[in-house]
Amino acid sequence: MQQDSKIYLISGLIIAVAVIGSVVYFAKNNTGSRELDSFATCLKDQGAVFYGAFWCPHCQATKRLFGKSADKLPYVECSTPDGNGQTQICTDKKIESYPTWIFKDGSKLNGEQTLQALSEKTGCPINTNVASSTPANSATSTSSSVVSTTTQK
């Protein structure tokens, strides 16, 4: 009988540790994963629009820069589903390369942009911890980057 009690006690402790560990892990990871939600929402509120194409590696890099907050970006898909053409809205906006950001004042930035460059252009504040830890803000990146992919696939 005493042996069974020890087994139940040890099993209970293992389960409790696993549950507590899981709660701590998911709470920590979910808190940090949406850190750029307010920044992405501010970009939209300030009239910035991100034009890109699903097949564009620079557009994919820009979305990765925002992590899970990428779904909050004011993104417009410019490619037709077959990847061989451009949507009418992007033709009308004269989008010639991806990614292209167009701002409320009508100005454009082409190519991958840093969070800092987007912040300076729109006045949207970013968390300094996030800004300093993102790869696009490393010493090798510049806010006036003009790396882009042309609309011709």
Strand and helix layout:
Blueprint: H1 2-32, H2 37-45, E1 49-52, H3 57-66, E2 75-77, H4 88-92, E3 97-98, E4 100-102, E5 108-110, H5 115-122, H6 128-133, E6 149-150
Parallel strand pairs: 1-2
Antiparallel strand pairs: 1-4, 3-6, 4-5
Protein traits:
153 residues; alpha+beta; Glutaredoxin; 2 domains; 6 helices; 6 strands; elongated
Summarize the structure.
The chain has 153 residues and is of the alpha+beta class. It contains 6 helices and 6 strands, in the order ααβαβαβββααβ.
CATH architecture descriptor of the largest domain: 3-Layer(aba) Sandwich
DSSP E strands, number: 6
Q: Which CATH class of the largest domain is shown?
A: Alpha Beta
- As a percent range, the share of strand residues is 5-15%
Strand order of the largest sheet: 2-1-4-5
CATH topology of the largest domain: Glutaredoxin
Task: State mean pLDDT (0 to 100 scale).
Answer: 80
- Classify the helix fraction into a percent range: 40-55%
Query: What is the total domain count?
Result: 2
Distance between the termini: 73 Å
